[in-house]
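Lab meeting notes turned into a lecture example. A postdoc, R.K., suggested we walk through two folding results consecutively so the class can see how the record format repeats. The first protein's sequence and structure tokens come next.
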Amino acid sequence: MTSPRVVVLDYGSGNIHSAIKALVAAGAEVELTADPAKVQAADGLLVPGVGAFTAVMNQLTDVRGARLIEQRLIASKPVLGICVGQQVMFESGVEHGIETEGLGQWPGIVEKLDAPMLPHMGWNTVDSAEGSRLFDGIEEERFYFVHSYGVKEWKLVADGPLAKPMVSWSTYGSPFVAAVENGPLSATQFHPEKSGEAGIKLLRNWLKTF
């Protein structure tokens, strides 16, 4: 049985090497590239993300990331966003009073969390969506978060062109979106690659969706 082939999108994000290591541990054959042909040919595409929303969007623009992701989703090919890689899937992000347009795959605004102390850094539980494939067998586990911004309100109520979304939540000060599964597009606000065995299991669950 051949290993699933996953491309980690190479656009300058900072958590690439740990993500590659985790994917390999989960059983994938991994390549770091932004080559359009390789991105489209891969079984799965992982979009990492560390830092500010605006900076990540600018970096994605440099490699035509929006088009690469959109082409895969149109073809129903799996995409997984991590941390800011989840955030940029939404309509926009607001940081330091500056609003930046996101990829617009989901309606919603990424904004500062309502919490007495930021960033939200460390282990936290996730209230996984009923029927979640990502959290299958790890519903009670804790995952590692590092962020000050997130999506506090899920706005997509009607079915869109993709399958009905499954939204998982976590709470730090107030609830925020911790993960989304929406047809070929999935994303997590936390870092699976920094979440030990639970994170490896989640990535393995994602690979099983191919």
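The second example is placed directly after the first for contrast:
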Amino acid sequence: MPNTSDDKRRAAEMPLYRRLAATLQQEIERGRYTANAPLPAERELAASFSVSRDTVRKAIRLLEEQGVLYSDHGRGTFAAPEAVRQMSRFLDSFTDDALKRGGVPGQRILGLDAVAADMAVASLLHLEAGAPLLRLRRLRLLNGTPVGLQDSWLHLPAGQTIRRQQLEAKGSLYRLLVEDLDLHPSECLESLSATAAGEDEAGLLGVPAGSPLLACERITLSDRRQPIEYCEMRYVPSYRYKTRINKWSLG
């Protein structure tokens, strides 16, 4: 059974704006605010929840980044349609994504080792070459079938680490980071391309060598905008991948 006392303690330790954001998101998911419905003005929300307008602004900004809300200058803030909310990639782990599809997520840990950052990974994570990282390599399963390979380099706070037993118990890396290390993945930067399966990848994924794979590189940022993970992923063609473009500009 879930430990409700631990859940309440973690909720109480969350910053106030995050608690407000979670409450607003729950109200949207429960249908209080339908697709494209306007939210009350900042001052009304501040009065309703007994918080400052600055807290309201931070909560709204977080939900906009997560694709739950959107703002129209001069008109207000609105609840995003469900399809847009489901496409948000900011906080979804593979586990959460698989569950939303109605599938059963799984993993096989292929490696979990302390390593020194090479120059390429160090540059992506804004670290010095040789900085200590934790490298995690996993085979991801959907309904028992291999669908992807994930190779992560994690920059954890000094003195903290992840044990194989922890990850196997949690099932989700991001859930473990939040619940055990108080490290909150907030958003990610991704690039997508196509590649061909090498011999090792093909053997693990159960596809012929040379088969097309969807390749994804991701840098995950914490809620303090610090890079905490660089991940290389390879997915079989049968795995459908969704993403959402949050902001764009010409220049």
